[in-house]
Amino acid sequence: MSGVGVRRGKNHLLADVSWRVELDERWVILGANGAGKTTLLRLAAAELHPTTGEVHVLGEKLGRVDVFELRPRIGFCSAAVIARVPPQEKVIDLVVSAGYAVLGRWREDYDQLDTGRALDLCEGLGIGHLTEREFGTLSEGERKRTIIARALMTDPEMLLLDEPAAGLDLGGREDLVARLSELALDADAPATILVTHHVEEIPPGFTHLLLVADGAVVAQGLIDEVLTSENLSRTFGQDLELDKIGDRYFARRRAAV
Ligand SMILES: Nc1ncnc2c1ncn2[C@@H]1O[C@H](COP(=O)(O)OP(=O)(O)OP(=O)(O)O)[C@@H](O)[C@H]1O
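That is the input. Now the predicted structure with adenosine-5'-triphosphate docked in place:
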């Protein structure tokens, strides 16, 4: 993205964002509610065009490329995607049908190879025992992992995760963070961008961080260099203290003295 702005009426959702993601990088976008994180992700998903500036996705310039050819190269996981899944859909069908592009489409004979790959992905995401269950019967965390398995089924060149841990309990969050960490550390995994509000949700193995506030970039670069108490405080507009324990981050408001 170069000099990117997104405007709706008088509202500037994003202003002058320049940002580059390489294929072997794993990025976290962190910011407060309304900062512009989802808008950034929707640009990366070729779901939105910038008002100003240029966006290139997987080497193609938005505005010049047929987005319907571009989107199958991108795996996009969000609450909106989960909301579109028919509740009666079987987990294995949902994952395997990703290759056929249409959500919820049912085909009588999946190739054995496709089914095997779908089962492997479900296994890897800890939902191997749930493949015969209907999507509507799954817990929130299991749904999220199913949607990630589905997104990976097409072997995307880029994986976008919009608040994957939102709504999960502590155990569910920790489990998902561990799975995403495994994915991040896998050299064959696609370029990954994860949106979150919480430093606790940054999976080890993610390499880069983009901090956003009020539609603008506060700081960006390697996580270890960019994630500081000062930058976090600027991003959330309050005096925050950051700790790193092992390979995980924790933040809280600095106690008044
Ligand atoms: N179509 C629109 N018209 C006007 N304002 C909009 C529109 N879409 C989004 N916005 C505003 O743009 C800002 C950024 O929205 P965005 O969804 O990108 O934020 P976010 O960082 O993902 O927030 P959250 O963490 O709450 O999901 C918000 O203030 C939102 O109200």
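The pocket of adenosine-5'-triphosphate is lined by residues 8, 11, 13, 31, 33-39, 197 (CB under 6 Å).
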